[in-house]
Structures are given as C-alpha cells and as structure tokens.
Amino acid sequence: MSELSSPIKAEPYLLRDIFSDKFLFNIPLFQRPFSWTEEHFEKLFMDIYESMIESKGSGIYFLGSMVLVNEKENLHQIIDGQQRLVSLITLIAVARDLIKDNDYKKDLQSLLCQKESPLLKRSKAERLKPWEELEQYFSNYIYVEDGTIKFLQQYKGKLRDEDDPVYHLYEAVKKFHELFAEHFSKLGGEELLHDFIKYLLNNVYVVGIRTIDLSSAIRLFNVLNTRGLPLSSTDIIKGINLDVIPDKSSKDKYAREWIELEGELGREELENLISHIRAIYAKDKSRVSLHEEYEKLYKAGKIEKGEKFFHLIREFAEIYEKRVLKPEIDESEPKKRNKYRILVDLMREYLPFSEWIPPVLAFCKKFDTENLLDFIIQLERKTFIEWVAGFTPSERITSFSRVVQIIDDNQNSKDVIHKMISYKPPPTLKTRYIDFNNPSELQKIIEPVLDSEQFYKLKGGKLAKYTLLRLDMELWDLAVFQGYSGPITVEHILPVTPQEKSKWIEIFDEDARKKLTNKLGNLVLLSGSKNSSAGNLDFSQKIEVYIKKQCSPFRLTQKLVEEFQEWNINNLQRRHKDLIRSVEEIYLQRAPNQLTLF
User: Fold this and answer.
1) d(CA 385, CA 420)
2) For range 230-237, the mean pLDDT
3) What is the pTM (predicted TM-score) of this model?
C-alpha cells in the first residue's frame, strides 16, 4: 500500500478488503485487553445475519469505523476497532472450521493468514498480531484449520477468570459455534452458511480512518468514540516506554510491574500520579494530552524513556502511596504523626484541586521525611490562603511549580520551607504574589471571605466544609485523634427555610435571616447525610434530636452544644467572630525563620 497522500484519509472498505493483502494489523501495547462478552458476540452476529435476511442478501451493512496508524506498506496499528476486529477474525475462524466446502475453507483461511508471495515481495503473515497474552492461542487455534473445535475441546470448563482475555476469546469461539449451530445446522443450512459468508465479505463494510501519526489517531479516536471509554493516556505512555525496551524478558517484567502498580494504586490514581510527575518536571500548565506532554519531557531530556521511566514511576508511586494516599511520617511522637496524616487527608479529600501534591512528592523524593511535617504545615497554609484569595488554576500551577523549583534549587529542607513562604518575585516578573509573612495583608485577604453573607455557598460549599474541619482539627488532642471518616455534612443552625410558626421566625426577622443564615457562625458539622425535616427543628429540639442523639464526632459541634442554650442574633454573631479569629490564628502566623546560612 502506498504512503498516505494526506495526514488523515477515510475510505469505506468491504470486509473482503480488510481481510485481504491490503491490510495487516497489530494491536499496540497500550490497548486494553480483549474484553468483549457473549452479548457483544451475539449482537455482532445477529446484526449482520438479520441484515442479510431482511435485505435478501442484497443490502449493505455498515459495521462502524476503524482508526488506524499506517506504519509501513500494508501494516497498520489499530487505535480503535480492535475488539470488533478480533471478534470478526474469530467468527471467520469458526466459519472456516464448520463449513464443509473445501474451497470455502481455503478461501476463509486465506483471509486469516497472508500467503507468502516472492513475486509480490510478501512474506507469510497472520492477518492480525493480537495482544501478547493471546498470541499463542491465535497461532494454535484461530489461525489453524479445525483450531476452534480443538480450543473448545481442550479448554472446556478450565477458564473461569472473567478478567482473563483468554476467557473472552473462548467465550467468543463458543458463542459463534452455538450461533452457527442454531442458524446453519438445519436442512439447507450449508447453503445459508455460504450466503452468510458471501454477505459478510461482500456487503458488510467499515470506514477505515488512516493516519501516519499516532497522536492524530488517538485524538480522532477520542472524538469518534462516543460509546466507550477514551484511551487512557497511561496505557499509551506505558506502551511507548515498553516499546523501546529491546529485551523481551525485561519488557515482560515491567509490563507485569505496571499491572501490579495499577492493582496497588488503582487505574485512576496511577493516572493522577503520572500527571503529578509531569507537573514536577514540566513546571508548567499542561496544554496537550498527557502522553503528548511526556513526549516533550523525553525530547527535552528531563525524563528518559524505557527502563529508567519505569524505575522513576515506581519510586514516585511508593512516595505517593506512603505520604499522600495513606499518609505516614517517621515521627516518634503520636501527635506529630497524626497531625501529618490528618492534614494530608483533609487536603486530599476536601480540597477541590490537587496542584499541591507535586510539591509534596518532589520534597519527599529529595529529603524523604526530613522536616516534612513543617513543610506540610506551611504548604497547607499557603494552599488555603491562595484558595481563599481566588487563585485561578493557572495561578495555582505557577505558584506550586515555583515551590518545586525551590526544592530543585536548594539542598537544605529548612531553606525550602522558608523560601516557599518568603518568596518575592523580581519587579520585572508580572505574577500574582502574596506576602505570607505579612499578617495584616493576609487578614485583608481572609477576613472579607470568612465574613461573607454567602460563605456557605462559596466554592460550591467546599470552602465551608474544609474551613470547619480545619477548625475542628485544632480542638482535638492529636496524640489520640484518628481523623475523619464517613459522610460529613455542613448543617445550618438557623434553618434556610424555617417554618412560618416556628420560634426561628420570632427570633430572626427576614432581614436578619437573609444576612446571617449562610454565615460561618451559623454553620456546624454533622456526620451522615442531611436530614431536612430535623434541620427545621427549633434550637433546643435540634440540639437534642439532631446532635446529642447522633453523638456528633466533631469537637466544634460539641463546643456549640456546651456553650449555647439558645440561638439568637447575639450568640450567632459571637460564635461567628470567634470562628474567624480561630481561622486567623491558624493561618496568619509568621513562618519560622529557618533559613540556613551555609
């Protein structure tokens, strides 16, 4: 096949063309394993069969599209359509083994395997090189005459792991055998089978979308793939790095380790980790897909492909799990251990962004746990204040990338902590800047937000919950406190919509309710989900039914119960001012001057 004349080319192909010498296929390492089930196989067969019957063999059936990367001549990588193509190959193999006519058998076999032709300079090749874990099964059972029959005989009752691709291949062979027996075993069935094969090859077509560029093919796939999941960038990154490892045993080793890592962290957290690592080395906003961003890092020499890449991921994965996902710190004092764990848990669970994580990973990689608690205390302080100040995502990325750069540039962990908080940009650099050592400036940022009449609604309600939890944490003896778990809700003491004849209407007029209902001082933490009916109770009933009986695990809530016997404007405002003062005590303190001279 000649080279593409344009970057992207879309053409309709009958299946007889797809299974001709025009095409050989391989499945990239980053593709997900074979996972179609018998429902998919039955639908594939029945859609084609019913189209043939309804059109009396003359209609055209569109099977969908395939996104391909044209590597060389007739060799193509399958970016989209591999599950369907593998299923079609299996269907053809079953037809080959069940059809009686020898000429048909030979023709069907030629669809599955490219014949050697010295004249055409074509070597013998299997039409599709499948996933590595299925190669021997294709070679032994799919590409060999009568192989599907032997496959059913030899593996009957032996495959039970539904996550195993071999299980799904067996399921495909079994289902197609059953469907062929159901529709082609009766009188006249052989002739109907001939008609079906003719229809399959000459009336069923796909649109082949071919490109010579992997990135373009992946973008195309993610646009076209409305029914399934988009390709995972981590799968692509894994495949690209496995591909440059020449030794097969090493390649297998790292592929297995990657699967283990997915099991340990989960696919989503692994992708998050790889994104955080990119942020550490790029120190910039991501502008293209994750695997394309990594290509930039490879080209810049910041990360090396192959084995060193997998070593780097493993090193960061251990840090990520131990210091972020299940945060621990090497401290003899329980109070310090718990403070680190609870702070990191709060940030991870209740902050609506994660740009603070790359600095933690970078710090731990360089300094392990040396002064890590002091670092996380100041990082959380910086993170909260910038969040309250309304930093945009781009401003957050710039700010936290600067912290990573400070870590890179300094060999002393105390210097890093000091410079992170004391950083001042040069006059020529136009960037948003907060002086974290200036309490009056910080107060001007924090106080108007905490005093907002709509505080409950700010940041989609996330700021209120985080602030209250952070205040609650300060009231505990951290030597024994184990942290927060289960559903947590923020409840209004003065209800949002009090009943007309309730005491709330007598105590708070409409203007007071409008100004005070969503204020910080009127908010309380409760465990479990919201109870709207209990939420409208009068104060004494609410305390008794909704707080005391539930044995609230929050010190901040218990403090409310202990200090107030009634809830009126004065008490609400008093508590409001106390909470603001407590927040300022946490976040307005000066950072300790720990800068070393040498």
Assistant:
1) 14
2) 76
3) 0.76
